[in-house]
Design a protein that fits this description.
SH3 type barrels; single chain; 3-stranded antiparallel sheet; 10 helices; Alpha-Beta Plaits; alpha+beta; 3 domains
């Protein structure tokens, strides 16, 4: 039997048969991948062209590519002469073990679907989730890519984001800037409020509706605190907050309404010991 298999004619026929099948399978897989990439790029452009959200369109295009790649692999195996029905049966039998081994990946995939379906954020939003704050670059099948303010790229698993608290700073078009300004007890409260109101009115980025709020907030042991609440465009939140703090501080100093500094009281016993 073995001598028959080793005959040159039989070996040649086998090489010709399996070599042809192998080349056909490789050609199907390589050319198929190129076609799939072009197809998914076209699908992405088509979905964005009809106004579909960028987050959803990218997720669906990635999912489409993955599904079609699986079918392409099965086609390549069929070209090799491997019975795909048996292959699918083997894959199905091993599905439980693979599912247990890849439970985190499957959880990430399911969470990714929920993130796309419920859309708590979209590409371009600044969010805080899973202990990371940054701008959403993409929502993938298994993770969300965030870019931090200092230009670091962080890949966060979908299950950690969907299973935790998500803070979306760009969900609304406007945000309220809350400041607490302290003045001394000897300062004129009415004058301080008037000075702060003038600083607020001079900033064109602050909305008139809702109107700015400037009111006494609390009486602290060494100071009187004034609450300043203004509404601004969400994208300008950080810049407005920083500018207001600086301008209010300078203006209060100009009118002699300086913010009190904490003074340390040294007990008499400490003074005696130091001598």
């Amino acid at each position: 039997m073995f001598s028959t298999w080793l005959e040159p004619r039989v070996v040649g026929d086998l090489l010709l048969l399996w070599g042809g099948r192998l080349l056909a399978a490789l050609a199907i897989f390589v050319i198929g991948r190129l076609i799939l990439r072009g197809l998914t790029r076209w699908a992405l452009s088509a979905m964005q062209g009809v106004g579909l959200d960028k987050t959803v369109s990218r997720f669906l295009s990635n999912l489409l590519y993955t599904v079609l790649l699986v079918f392409l692999g099965l086609t390549a195996f069929a070209a090799l002469g491997v019975p795909t029905i048996n292959f699918i049966a083997i894959v199905g039998a091993a599905g439980l073990a693979v599912g247990l081994a890849l439970k985190d990946s499957l959880s990430n995939f399911a969470s990714g679907v929920m993130l796309v379906f419920f859309r708590p954020f979209k590409v371009g939003d600044h969010i805080e989730a899973a202990g990371v704050a940054g701008t959403v670059e993409s929502v993938g099948i298994f993770d969300v890519v965030l870019k931090t303010p200092d230009n670091r790229v962080v890949n966060v698993p979908n299950r950690l984001i969907y299973g935790g608290t998500i803070t979306n700073y760009n969900a609304e078009s406007t945000r309220r800037v809350d400041l607490t300004i302290a003045i001394g007890y000897d300062a004129d409260i009415a004058q301080a409020k008037s000075v702060i109101a003038a600083v607020v009115a001079a900033d064109s980025r602050i909305a008139n509706i809702p109107a700015p709020e400037i009111a006494v907030q609390d009486l602290m042991p060494t100071s009187v605190t004034i609450a300043v609440r203004v509404w601004v465009d969400s994208k300008a939140y950080g810049a407005v907050r920083s500018d207001l703090l600086e301008r209010i501080k300078r203006t209060l100093d100009k009118y002699g309404l300086s913010i009190p500094t904490a003074q340390r009281v040294v007990p008499p016993a400490t003074l005696t010991a130091s001598k």
